[in-house]
Amino acid sequence: MAAKDLHKRPFSEETIIKLDIFQKYLESWLPVAIQSRFITEVNICDFFAGIGRDIKGTDGSPIRIIKTIKKFEDNILKQNLKIHILFNEYTPTKCQQLRDCIAEEQETLKNLDSNLSIEIFNLDFKQLFVSKKPLLENHFNLVFLDQSGIKQVTEEIFLDLAKFHRTDFMFFVSSSAFKRFASDTSFQKYFPDIDIHKLSMTSQSEMHRMILQYYKSKIPNDSQLKLYPFTIKKGRNIYGLIFGSNHPLGIEKFLKIAWETNALNGEANFDIDEDWKTSQMVFSFVNRKLSKIEKFQLDLEEFILSKNEVSNKEVYDFALENGHVINNALPVIKKLENKISYAGHHNISYNKCYKSKEIKKFKVL
Ligand SMILES: C[S@@+](CC[C@H](N)C(=O)[O-])C[C@H]1O[C@@H](n2cnc3c(N)ncnc32)[C@H](O)[C@@H]1O
Predict the structure, then answer these.
(1) Is the pTM higher than 0.90?
(2) Strand, coil or helix: what is 116?
(3) Cα-to-centroid distance, 322 and ligand 1 (Å)
(4) Same domain (yes/no): 143, 226
(5) What pLDDT digit, counting tens, does each position of 248-264 carry?
């Protein structure tokens, strides 16, 4: 199950998609902490950090973290937010390259000296993660697990992540490798209860969704944790990110980035459900398969019309639960103008539904 070394050649287009999604999420997560009256310190953990950049100088996750912090420097100082960055890289030579790279960058962060601490470790992920559990349990954290391959985010690690209620996390997984290595004894050691038959029956493009379901099935019943996928196809192989958060605002922000990355399906770097292909089949319009957005809008319409009354929060939650941004839900409210009645604005937003809790009822006529 040896994984390729990402740092021996320039980052591929697909690696850059992964890193862009992580960076964009960090850029929308950090301001939430800066603006919150209740958050005074945060941890940003990059447990598989690499060397900082690729061999051509393209920014890797460590430099992206540093640059994002620099971008918000003024507000971090104004609100006096304390930020702890944890970098970890297991290979000693790579870790030294990372230290050199960060030492150079730290010069640009001089103004943040009393607000920012950076620790760089050269440890096996699991050993470090276990030692940092008490810290992560009680803080507001963003954890990035950019493993090569599949074996680091075991059930045990995942269940720990699920317990950290104020932690958003993103992990990378080589999903199609599950298919390739399913019969290896070493694989079965890491994932003893994965359904090997289901693995073999799942098509390549569905593999990341299947792995998402595997992790979803591990979420404890009393947990608020929600998981969302982003499938990344490279050649014949399927990789992907799994994002986890306990908080609707985090989920909304991740989904916004995912839908901006691919406006067709919001969950892959390719036409995973052949939405584009079917939209071109004008000749069979009547029997045409619905696109992901059309299907969701029809489901939402049915959901609303099946009730006597529905609230803005129920519509908001329905969209997030189904992996859609609020903008995909609003045309349904407009379409149902003559079938529902409500006063004033629809109030379907995080702020109205969760922050100011301005609950609005839509009466079904
Ligand atoms: C996919 S790369 C991470 C790339 C990084 N995010 C970047 O942007 O450059 C995974 C890294 O994890 C390191 N690694 C492998 N096994 C590890 C372990 N058990 N603990 C910590 N790091 C490990 C590898 O040496 C490799 O540099």
Answers:
(1) yes
(2) strand
(3) 32
(4) yes
(5) 999 999 999 999 999 99
